[in-house]
């Protein structure tokens, strides 16, 4: 059974944007003498091995800073504002729904309090550029306890690329989890065929019949599984039903090929599997509409420890897929190669645009050809909840029959292309 501590927070069903597996990394820290800040991002739970000493003391599986001191013999204690910090580049930019600051195994050396901030810095910024960014409070300074996974919901709808963990005055934090919804830049996906189910593009395993041995989030994680524990495995069924995982795709798309990978599952691979799809863009709900599902891949025999590749017959375009395995067992990875439909691209683009900081949204629009005034007006019209609302907002920028009508029409067309409407 998984040794991850159970959580009552609903946001933990989302993707951990700060996972090293997803590509997260430590950009900078002011202090990690005792234990490396990169330990914060390790995928598994923290481990403690007593009486394992290095030349700096007990080896801890987490981030631990040195003990702070005052400025003089007359002032030996740190001030109330003295603190340590670490900046993390998220593996994928997204809207953050919840944070866990886990002080597991730090009991006499945990921080007194902590906070988390977020920033959005596009491109590939240097550490200095990230440090100088505008930081937004996601979790205000709050007291921390030792050996405790502190869960905090976040209510900010902005898209972030980096987070900063602050601790007062010093101490150790074992793990930092940042759960949220991936919001990729649609311009990075234009014209590409890619894995529609992948976490890094916004795919998320939103429901599963069983997660006894391991998480269904492993199914669409980056890279190949290196051991059985990095896949999704169910308990042994003692009835006549079957297990399944439902994945919301990055966007509605045309599915061209599928890969069902049972690597490392030798004596516990499923016997058969099939794939079904659902198109939520037509207004239905895949959670409550059992009749709206359609076949993508018929029930097919699986082999143990094998990467199964299937070419799919072009047809209906899903926004969600469900992998059914019969009767139970483990699957390392599911890949669904395809390309976004126009509607899928538009929905993705509007979610992205609505969550950008104002300055980034305006820069994207001016880069697409709008004037600064038009970009400001369209940004102020957010949220653009649907394509109709976006079209109306774009059309209202400037009448097309004025002296600048032709140029205005071209600029509106540029913004239509950016937002996919």
Description:
The longest helix is centred in the C-terminal third of the chain and has 15 residues, at 405-419. Helix 3 (358-368) packs across helix 4 (372-380) and helix 5 packs antiparallel against helix 6. Strands 1, 2, 6, 7, 8, 9, 10 and 12 form an eight-stranded antiparallel β-sheet that branches. Strands 14-16-21-18-19 form a five-stranded antiparallel β-sheet, with no helix packed on it. It has helices at residues 127-131, 342-355, 358-368, 372-380, 387-395, 405-419; strands at residues 15-16, 25-29, 53-54, 57-58, 63-64, 84-102, 113-119, 136-143, 149-153, 159-168, 172-173, 175-182, 194-195, 204-208, 232-233, 243-248, 253-261, 272-278, 294-301, 307-311, 320-326, 330-331, 333-340. It folds into three domains: 10-72 and 80-182, Jelly Rolls, CATH 2.60.120; 186-341, Jelly Rolls, CATH 2.60.120; 357-419, no CATH class. It is built from six helices and 23 strands. With 421 residues, the chain is α+β, with helices and mostly antiparallel strands. 15% of the residues lie in helices and 32% in strands.
How confident overall, as mean pLDDT? 90
Distance between the termini: 47 Å
The biggest sheet amounts to: 8 strands, antiparallel
Percentage of residues in strands = 25-35%
Number of strands: 23
Radius of gyration over all CA atoms, rounded: 24 Å
Number of helices: 6
Shape: flat
Salient structural properties:
hydrolase, single chain, flat, EC 3.5.3.4, Allantoicase, Jelly Rolls, 15% helix, Galactose-bd-like_sf, alpha+beta
């Amino acid at each position: 059974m998984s040794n991850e501590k159970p959580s009552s927070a609903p946001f933990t069903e989302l993707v951990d944007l700060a996972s090293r597996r997803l590509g997260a990394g430590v950009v900078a820290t002011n202090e990690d003498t005792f234990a490396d800040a990169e330990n914060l991002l390790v995928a598994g739970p923290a481990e403690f091995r007593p009486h394992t000493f290095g030349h700096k003391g007990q080896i801890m599986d987490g981030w631990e800073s040195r003990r702070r001191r005052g400025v003089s013999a007359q002032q030996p204690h740190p001030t109330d504002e003295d603190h340590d910090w670490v900046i993390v580049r998220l593996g994928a930019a997204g809207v953050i729904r919840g944070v866990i600051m886990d002080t597991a195994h730090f009991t006499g050396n945990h921080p007194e309090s902590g906070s988390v901030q977020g920033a959005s810095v596009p491109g590939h910024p240097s550490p200095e550029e990230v440090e100088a960014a505008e930081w937004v409070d996601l979790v205000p300074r709050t007291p921390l306890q030792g050996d405790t996974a502190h869960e905090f919901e976040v209510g900010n709808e902005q898209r972030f690329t980096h987070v900063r963990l602050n601790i007062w005055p010093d101490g150790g934090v074992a793990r930092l989890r940042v759960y949220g919804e991936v919001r990729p830049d649609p311009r990075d996906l234009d014209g590409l065929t890619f894995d529609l189910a992948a976490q890094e593009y916004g795919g998320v395993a939103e429901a599963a019949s069983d997660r006894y041995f391991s998480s269904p989030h492993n199914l669409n994680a980056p890279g190949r599984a290196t051991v059985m524990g990095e896949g999704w495995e169910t308990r042994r069924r003692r009835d006549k039903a079957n297990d399944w995982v439902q994945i919301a795709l990055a966007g509605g798309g045309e599915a061209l090929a599928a890969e069902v990978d049972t690597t490392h599952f030798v004596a516990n691979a499923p016997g058969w599997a099939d794939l079904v799809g659902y198109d939520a863009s037509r207004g239905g709900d895949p959670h409550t509409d059992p009749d709206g599902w359609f076949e993508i891949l018929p029930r097919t025999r699986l082999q143990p420890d094998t990467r199964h590749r299937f070419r799919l017959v072009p047809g209906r375009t899903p926004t969600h897929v469900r992998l059914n395995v019969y009767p139970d067992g483990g699957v390392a990875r599911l890949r669904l190669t395809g390309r976004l439909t126009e509607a899928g691209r538009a929905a993705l683009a509007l979610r992205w645009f609505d969550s950008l900081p104002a300055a980034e949204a305006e820069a994207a629009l001016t880069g697409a050809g709008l004037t600064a005034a038009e970009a400001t007006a369209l940004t102020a019209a957010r949220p653009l909840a649907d394509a109709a609302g976006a079209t109306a907002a774009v059309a209202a920028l400037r009448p097309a029959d004025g002296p600048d009508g032709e140029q205005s029409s071209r600029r509106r067309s540029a913004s239509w292309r950016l937002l996919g409407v």
